[in-house]
Structures are given as structure tokens and as C-alpha cells.
Amino acid sequence: MKKIFTLTALMCLFCLTAGAQKFALVDMEYILNRIPAYERANEQLNQLSKRWQAEVEAVSLEAQTLYKNYQNESVFLSDEQKTRKEEEIVAKEKQASELKRQYFGPEGELFKKRESLMNPIQDEIYEAVKQISEAEGYQMVIDRSSASSMVYASPKIDISNEVLRKLGYSN
């Protein structure tokens, strides 16, 4: 009997403390799309990506051309010449894959550039959300755009526009 009473008291206490917490939502996608610096950074990243992709494709095309030429000429080549051509093709393919890794790999140039352009914007948004949360007493702020399991959230607790105002961008 004592255990049931203690358990019930603890449950009531938990419910009371949980009810006192304040939550808010923020839509990072909505906020980012209204910040001109984010749009400029995205455009810059797209241009770099296209330029680097063209460079990788050019080297890959060279490797394909070398291979096609090798196939056409292989009957006329000596074993030594075949070996040299094969090594040349392999080197060109390796160069293409190295370029791809250098530009688009996990620690590649595109990743580093994205990080250097986006981190200041994200830090600024984080600071604004933190200041609003501390001022309004929110214990938790959830990003609505990345919360795929969220079925419904009241627009009353969405502070995205408040964050934009705090950053100096009116909606």
C-alpha cells in the first residue's frame, strides 16, 4: 500500500513539474529562406559545385577517350605500348576519382566551404533563439522543419518570426 501511495505521489509530482515547462517551435527552413546571406551562400556553393563537377567530368571524359582509343588501337600495339596505355588510362581514372574525393568527399573543399559560409549564419540564429528562449522561459525549442515525427504543432508556439525580428529581418 505504501508503495502505491509513494508511486502515485511521485507521478503527481512529475506531472506538475512537466506541466510547468514551456516549449516553442522554430522553423529553420523558413528562417534561413528569409536571410539574404543564406541565399548568397547557397548560390556561391552551387556555382563552386558546378565548376568542380565540370572539372571532374572533364578528367573522366579524358579517361573514357583514352580507353576508347586504346580499344581501337590495341591490335596494332606491342605489349609494352599496351601496358603504357593501360597505365595511362588507370592514372587518368585515378586522377578523376581523386579530384572527386578532394572536392566532394567528407572532408572535401565543398564541405569546408559550406561550413565556413553557413556556420556564422547558424551561430547567429542559435544566439537569437537562445536569447528569446531565456527571455520567455522556454525549456525546449524544437526545429519544426527537421522534426519528421511531429504530427501537429500549434502555430501559437512557433517563434520563427520572433527569431527573424531579433536577427533584424522583418517577415
Folded structure, characterized:
By secondary structure, the chain is mainly alpha-helical. The chain has one domain (19-167). 72% of the residues lie in helices and 5% in strands. Strands 1-2 form a two-stranded parallel sheet. Helix 3 (36-73) runs antiparallel to helix 4 (79-104), helix 3 runs antiparallel to helix 5 (109-136) and helix 5 packs across helix 6.
In round numbers, the mean pLDDT is 85
Number of helices: 6
Shape descriptor reads rod-shaped
Total E-strand runs:
2
- Sheet/helix structural class: mainly alpha
Number of spatially distinct domains: 1
Helicity level, as a percent range?
Answer: over 70%
Strand order of the largest sheet: 1-2
What is Rg? 28 Å
- What is the helix/strand order? HEHHHHEH
Beta-strand portion reads: under 5%
* Low-pLDDT segments: none
Largest sheet composition: 2 strands, parallel
Terminal Cα separation, in Å?
A: 58 Å
Quaternary organisation = single chain
Quick rundown:
The chain has 171 residues and is mainly α.
Q: What attributes characterize this protein structure?
A:
single chain, 171 residues, mainly alpha, two-stranded parallel sheet
SSE diagram, text form:
Elements: H1 2-19, E1 23-26, H2 28-32, H3 36-73, H4 79-104, H5 109-136, E2 140-143, H6 160-167
Parallel strand pairs: 1-2
Helix pairs in contact: 3-4, 3-5, 5-6
